[in-house]
Structures
1.
Amino acid sequence: MSSLHPRPGARDAVVAALVVFLVWSGIAPRSHVTWLAEVFWVIGAIVMWAVWLRRLPCTGIAFTVLVVHSVVLIIGGIYTYAHVPLGAWVQEWMARPRNDYDRFGHFMQGFAPALLWREVFLRNAIVAL
């Protein structure tokens, strides 16, 4: 199989690790309501993976971006975006007035779906490279 399409077993292992991280993140988040609002989309993506997407694999790049986006959402759900420790570290390091983790989250919320739509357009021959 080409490097653009990693082995399905490897993807299954990554999704299983993501499920473990998701479950762990729900044990003691800062706010259960915020956690649920953030990870709702990750839960939906995992259900889609189990039901449909395993038979219709996306490229390795799109899969990786989706996993990273899921991790960003889960971390935002654990701490709430304003209190993510990594964002606080960057805030202090760059002498920023606020924790900008939410900006990274918003970037990912635009970038990941755009990459998925690119795949849909290419796969269905709506556009060509």
Note: The longest helix spans residues 101-123.
2.
Amino acid sequence: FFDEFQMLDLVVTDGRCGGLVAYEIARGELHLFRAKAVLLATGGFGRIYKVTSNAHALTGDGVAVAWRCGVPLEDMEFFQFHPTGIYKLGILLSEAARGEGAVLLNGRGERFMERYAPTLKDLAPRDLISRCMYLEIREGRGIGGKDYLHLDFRHLGKEVIDQKLPDITEFVRVYLGLDPTREPVPIQPTAHYAMGGIPTNTDGQVIVNERAEPLWGLYAAGECACVSVHGANRLGTNSLVDILVFGRRAGRHMARYLRDAELPPVHGDPASRVRREIEALLARDQGEPVARLRDELQQEMMDNVGVFRTAAGLQHALEKIAELRERYGRARINDHGRRFNTDLLEALEMGFLLDLAEATAAAALHRTESRGGHFREDFPRRDDAAWLKHTLLYRGPDGRHEFRYRPVVITRFHPKERTY
């Protein structure tokens, strides 16, 4: 274990991964870790959004690094929003609350889901409820005309709340200072899970094209990977499949691979690109703070690449991201020291966030239909004839995007239109 080390780049030579470059936070030094195989298990990238259930560390470093090294990203347009995040904070109040009978209310005190999904009501799928919440807010039925709604536990009674939902209601008490047995809880949709990411096969090997050819020695598992067990819309708890099933398969395949693999050669200075980026940030004492750029990016993604999407909004987002990238090249940090420089690390993470925001917006603009977690107001219907396929997004050296496609493998269950 190398605690307080942060991965910043991969070593890829002649179609093989031979290690990684990491920054030692305690000493401010770069290290080359040579390896026959590397497995990325770096989680998702919900921090491209302003309101997210993801931890502060989920800035998508592993996904962005792979993209920078020529690996395509798969199905980046599909991002799941969970309907019941604590207002402004995004901390998740899980389906267990609605499973026990908590209900969603608008500013008029109405159970509005009865209008949209009369059969399932408050237990409809996450993406559908999130869209309905935004429609209620857009039409002026938010709480007090604001941009949030209520999750109401009060009718369940104190005994049920305290015995069956102790963790959920404790979040409310700690972070909002409210008693859910007496007061409704302010909520809003929160960016929750990336269905897309680094493409892999069922053994966790990272693949680099539509023919599923692997980049030898590189593996990925968990939310950073796209195997794709979730398709366009993850079901609750299926993230455990990503972790436990495909994490195990990746580890077993790596063990077999290591028996015969040779340690790949290293050419030149693999840390040179990262070193230049770090030194430029440390040397720059003029410019706007990186934190301001991050706030603008997260707000833009929330506004135009969130629950509802349109061509105009997505194009605006891509233009904004390009502007932020240009400003990022001149931005400054306040701490110019070498030891435990978290200001520097957050600035490096901002570069990864820009990459992943760009990939998400570009993929969402490219897919001219609505499917699962991706909803285009200008293309509200699903189009299986044109879009029943996975997207692979490449970024060329000139920054241009190239899309290729992988077929969707259908076995027992054929896709059908969802009706509730």
Note: The radius of gyration is 22 Å.
3.
Amino acid sequence: MTTDHAKIARLEALAALSGAMIALQSRANGELSHRLNNSIEAAFVSFSSGLIILIVIAMFSAQVRQGMRNLNVALKDGRIPLWQIPAGVLGGFFVALQTHVVPLIGVAIYSVASIAGQTGISLFVDRIGLTGGGKKLISKRRVAAAFVTVAAVLVSVLDKFSVATFSIFAVVLSLAAGAMVGVQRALNGQINEHTKVSFSTSLLNFITGTTTLAIIWLIGILSGHGSINGLPGWNLLLYTGGGIGVVYIAFTSTIVQHLGVLTFTLFSVGGTLIGSLLIDLLIPSHGIGVSWYLITGIAMTYIGVIIGGQSRLFKR
């Protein structure tokens, strides 16, 4: 293997690892929600921990601070509309849904459903031109990919319909979570065109997301539908969700430059699906099991992602 091929192989492995980290983030946030018995509080803890990390990075990085100044100038000049700035609100809701549903259906089914949500919403996002660069025609290949990933969700839960305790609504929420993150990524793409620094875009997301979750949590407490629970001990794994998100951002911003978006996405999604399967096999949430239906659904999801890729998939 040549040096270049070895480098590419290492980057592909890191892309897969970053995807597996997203599955681990889901498990950590879900377990924190289960321990706190409060998904909004768990999402706030996760988001705020990531925000703290990004603030520390910004304190020592002139580049990140310049990125925020670039965004401020773009806002004043009217080059970016104000309504796009709170993209992190969608991220906040995404994490809130993630922390709520993972203890109910497990990491693997959640991952399959959220990827289907992302694939489906991408058709709408591109059709209305939300990613920038104008409206895009939707190819038959991408429509087929969306159908395959949605069908994968149905196959994954096929054996669960007869289980009284299984929540189909949680699967629907997982689809919604994926759709939210799909729209968020489109908005972040436009914001990043102006900040020119991915960590600056992420800092903005974590600020708006954390603020949104704090407001929702406070409203719940004041209305008598929420509570403040003490943190469940010092098991550091429970609090890794926000940090994993920041590391994933770092991986994305560096690896994508070398592999391209398509190759990174394929390896990252593969890592997420395999990682979620291993998590549900080795350290499952209470009452969560793995069936051949689920394994088939995972395989279908990855096939759907490949179908949605370019015809030049295997060309470097």
Note: The CA atoms of residues 87 and 185 lie 8 Å apart.
4.
Amino acid sequence: MHPVSAVIITFNEEANIARCIASVKKVADEIIVLDSFSTDRTVEIARSLGAIVHQEKFRGYIGQKNLAMQLASHHYILSLDADETLDDKLVVSLQQAKEKLAFRAYRMNRCTNYCGHFIRHGLWYPDPKIRLFDRRVATWSGLNPHDKIQLQPGFKVYHLPGNILHYSFKTPEDLVWQLNRLSSIAAASLYANGKRSNWLKILFRPAWAFINGYIFRGGFLDGADGFTIAVNTAHQVFLKYTKLYRLQHIKHQAGTTIRREAAQPSQKTASRD
């Protein structure tokens, strides 16, 4: 049996952290929590359940997760968010995988709970994620807030049966708030990485998000919840590209102002000469 470190990043997760830790205890040899100075009882609860808690200022999802996995004692990392847990089938799959750890990375599906119901179709499922991996050949990458594991070339990924259960949205308001927040993070990240928006992206990408999720990916099979999710996902895409569009124009106007102000002294000097 090979040792595995469970790694969780947190900020004000007192409502979720106990469930997450109880779940990973079934497969992990140690539990590392990297907290971003929570103001609730997250740290207290985590320590009472046997987790090793470190605290560090939040540096973005990617940076925080890369730091967190380096704090672990073991090379194989099981990474979960605080609002996630392992279902019984996935626990068994992970226990069996630990016996040999024949692969350097393992993928598993994630199933999100919306207002008390697990969503089984659309853009939200199966939502496969690499969450068990050897940190010697893996790093967190991507564009915030959409972090992902990047493996060194040549390593295969094995898919494990079972689901990560994602308890993210208790109310419709939770979904609206989260998608608005994530669209702001995504827009800033896209801009920082040289991506730009335009009217075609603003008009057509939200429409495609709805059609793809609700029709082609079967979101309609989740009933009214599926329709709500498809509409809100399209709205998130709309917000992301409109915020990016606004951001690039603000930056452009600021740059124009700086260039104009920088040119003024030389113009005054020329007039005096």
Note: The mean pLDDT is 93.
